[in-house]
Amino acid sequence: MIIDDIFIQAKLDSKAVKLDTEVSESRLLYGIKIIKEIKTQAISIYDTAVGGDRYKELTESQYVEFQKGWRVGVYKVRLDVYRDKLKKIERKIVDELNGKNNPTQLQLLKDNKNRTIKNYFKLTQKLNQHE
User: Fold this and answer.
1) Residues 89 and 113 sit within 8 Å (Cβ to Cβ)
2) Domain ranges of the chain
3) 9, 10, 36, 80: which one has the fewest Cβ atoms less than 10 Å from its Cβ?
């Protein structure tokens, strides 16, 4: 699937938030933003959940996830982010258990882990419906 088709799918997606400006058309869904520059017609996809102050453009392997379409690509990229987040939380839990062993901090980490697992599961179900 070519990037132009993905952008058209994003424009037609009723769940994607429309973020058009004078210089670009863009849509946002689950933290994934696709932008088409009006002047150059260049299309780029960004992950707004990583990268700090600036959005991070997707890697080549993440762009490949969009071969089956806009929604499938968004779900797969977001699931990767959730998997990375869960790994970080697990490391923090281990560090906390081996360090200060603060019960409040441990509970916050466990709550964050459970929330992330819940979001991961919901998104996995949506992905299964689209594949």
Assistant:
1) yes
2) 3-130
3) 80
Chain centroid to CA 32: how far? Answer: 5
Reference 28, options 15, 40, 41; nearest CA is: 15
Nearest-angstrom CA–CA distance, 3 and 63? 9
Instruction: Please answer whether residues 49 and 43 qualify as being in contact, where contact means their C-beta atoms are separated by less than 8 angstroms.
Output: no
Q: Which pLDDT value is given to residue 50?
A: 76
Residues 82 and 84: their CA atoms lie apart, in Å, by: 5
Beta bridge partners of 44: 35
Tokens for 57, please give them: 């453009």
Q: How far apart are the first and last CA of the chain?
A: 15
pLDDT digits (tens, 9 = 90+) for 84-117: 999 999 999 999 999 888 899 999 999 999 999 9
Query: What share of the chain has pLDDT > 70, as a percent?
Result: 98
What's the rounded Cα separation, in Å, for the pair 51 and 20?
A: 22
Q: How confident is the model at residue 43, as a pLDDT?
A: 96
Count CB-CB contacts under 10 A for residue 48. Answer: 13
